[in-house]
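User: Predict the complex with adenosine-5'-triphosphate.
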Amino acid sequence: MAFEQSLLSKVFATNIGLRREAPRSAGSYERELDERRGTETRLRKMLASEEALLRQKDELIHNSEVLSMEADHRLLNGLQMIVSLLSLQSRSESNAEAAEHLSTAAKRVATLARVHRRLHALDGQESVAFKPFLQELCGEYRSILASDDRREQTIVVEGADASLPARTAVPLSLIVNELITNAAKHGGGIITVRLEEPPEGGLLLSVCNQGPPLPEGFDPAASKGLGMKIVKALVDQIGGELRTGRCKHCGGPEFSVAFA
Ligand SMILES: Nc1ncnc2c1ncn2[C@@H]1O[C@H](COP(=O)(O)OP(=O)(O)OP(=O)(O)O)[C@@H](O)[C@H]1O
Ligand SMILES: [Mg+2]
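Assistant: Here is the predicted structure with adenosine-5'-triphosphate placed in the model:
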């Protein structure tokens, strides 16, 4: 009964509504049609301009990717050129000490190029899975050591899998380069590169090698060499702390960088 009543009242209301609606002229229908056509044209134009903007955005992204690849390519070519010039100059230098310095400089620039090439291969990712990255980088040093016939010296990478922002990964790779170079030059035995997550938080990257420990009171800041100065500057750049001491695993000299 209630249902029938509500149906009746609906029909009644509709009829009243129909009765209230004034009859429309053909002209008013045409005007409405014109308005709708106008709205449709405007919407189509807006859609077309949105699509054009999207195409423009895609083109800009593509152009900037090409530019960045081009810039990387030029940077790598430039670095390669510097390596060649320094090596050439080193070979033509009659003073043995100066020749050695020039060759060391060439190796440093070559490392910089290698690190950039490896990072470039990560295709602009903002963060780097650092352990595999270190493993690949150390693989290259391993082959250099093998070709130098230092078969007793090898490099192992151990520790945590951490993902680091590229702005930290680049300086850290250069630090590792200096520390591995030192371990190979001044130390002996197996070189271990270790990435740890210490209980006090942050990360700890260390390079140690088997061999006689560092002398008592060794101060890296007092070093006359360039390597430690480079390391110190890069550690400051990432807001880290450089520590030196004796490795608790192998007992040899250990250099570590604590960073957030
Ligand atoms: N792994 C190591 N084992 C033993 N001594 C080391 C080790 N690493 C560094 N040292 C000592 O620290 C010093 C400073 O190192 P640094 O890298 O600044 O200079 P360098 O290696 O002598 O020269 P450069 O780096 O300019 O070629 C070295 O001369 C060496 O005495
Ligand atoms: Mg050095």
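Residues 212 and 252 are 6 Å apart (CA to CA).
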